[in-house]
Amino acid sequence: MKKTVLLLAVILGLVTGYAQNYTLDDQVYDYIDQYKDLAMQEMEQYRIPASITLAQAIYSSKIGMNRVAKEANNHFGIMCHTSEWTGETFYETENHSSDYCYRKYASVKESYRDHSLFLSQRSRYVKLFYYPITDYKSWAIGLKEAGYSGNPRYADTLISIIEKYYLMHYDRKVALKIGDTTALQAMTAPQPERATNTTTTPISYTTTATSQPSTIKSAQTPEDQAPKTQPVAAQTTPPAQQQPSAKSKQDTLQVNGIDVIVNKKEQPKTVKYDTIVTTLPAPEKVGGKNVFVLDPYSVPFKVAYYPYTSRPTYENNKTKFIIAKAGDTYKKLAESLQLTEKNLRLYNDVYDDSEPIEDEVVYVEMKSTKSPVEFHTLAAGDTYRYIAQKYGIQLKIIIKRNSGAISNYGVGDQICIGCK
Asked: Helices marked H in 47-149 — which ranges?
């Protein structure tokens, strides 16, 4: 009997000691371990930084512990917005006040997906998608400025969570996977040297403006405690792209202090440009006719955001486009872009059964009816369609502004683009 009592006392002591040592930080790390892959999957598809998604979920759901998270699988405190939400609902008050109506999901995975859709389909968040997917600070500030939360320190809180638990590591992993060189070069990270015996400002894990406030707070542990989920040390500066030699076909990026050889055929890079691009590469010729193509590793147009593709997207004359790869067809591209083949061909003025060639510009929306360029000087092989693609203007506008077929003109003649 005495032995049994002694054994129970020992077990109880071990359990009690474990409970005392299982801190709020441990709960956060467990939450990250459970949902980091889901956040990265959403980032790959919707280009919302995984670090931002995880930080928002940790903050809004109190690490998955508040009622809305437990009973409605809602980890982001997204309200019903009854004019648009037709799914199940969850009320925190007995009188079913609309002020405390939350969306209810069948699973946490559905909550993460709805969060991606919530941000990507609202105009007030559009500017966020122009930031590099590794720029978590701009995303955090942008979310606050767009009114995602009424907490005046919302951006600081998200940044603190991200940097404390090194969540930016997952942004890097996705950027490397999808080959987003621009995002890798834009990476920012805290200093890797972690100060010992440092007391930092506590983080308050309260919900966003879309959910009930919480009083739970967590005192941060000293900064010399290594995070459980961080396998690679952070870097002091963003990685710089090394210039390859004249004969080299590879770039070297330094990521997390490690040189990574990047095949140039897989890693587009973007060259900054002014308002109007005046110098473009020579066109490709197909059947003696010019086709508007771009070198995918030196694109002289600004990066744009298009939510339905992981390919680099750019903008010409306020019209978004991608660059075709070998083997692409309008049907395949339309499916990947969530468009119809008919519309994609219409956007690119393709009225026969021809397919895009490698490196050809493919517009993903209707081109403009105006252009800041007034005239185009004809070169051998130019067609009205080539001119329309080059300047991002609708073919019918080009035809309307110029009398007769293009065969009526010769090399060196002026074709009206945006002339009055």
From this structure: 50-61, 67-72, 108-120, 136-145
Q: Is 173 exposed, middle or buried (0-12, 13-18, 19+ CB in 10 A)?
A: middle
Q: Give me the residues paired with residue 314 across strands.
A: 303, 321
Rg (C-alpha) for the chain, rounded Å, is 27
SS3 117: helix
CA-nearest of 415, 332, 316, 409 to 374 is: 415
Single pTM value for the model? 0.45
Angle (deg, nearest 10), helices 154-164 and 50-61: 110
The secondary structure element, H or E, covering residue 16 is helix 2-21
Q: Is 364 left (phi over 0), alpha (psi -120 to 50) or beta?
A: alpha
Helix count (H) and strand count (E) of the chain? 13, 14
SS (H, E, C) 216-285: CEECCCCCCCCCCCCCCCCCCCCCCCECCCCCCCEEEEEECCEEEEEECCCCCCECCCCCCCCCCCCCEE
Is residue 360 left, alpha or beta, with left meaning phi > 0 and alpha meaning psi from -120 to 50?
A: beta
Q: Tell me the per-residue pLDDT of 92-128, one tens digit each, with 9 for 90 and over.
A: 776 555 567 899 999 999 999 999 999 998 888 989 9
- The length of the chain, given as a count of residues: 420
Structure tokens at 296: 């995918």
Instruction: Give the C-alpha separation, 357 to 293, whole Å.
Output: 9
User: How many CB atoms are located within 10 Å of the residue 71 CB?
Assistant: 12
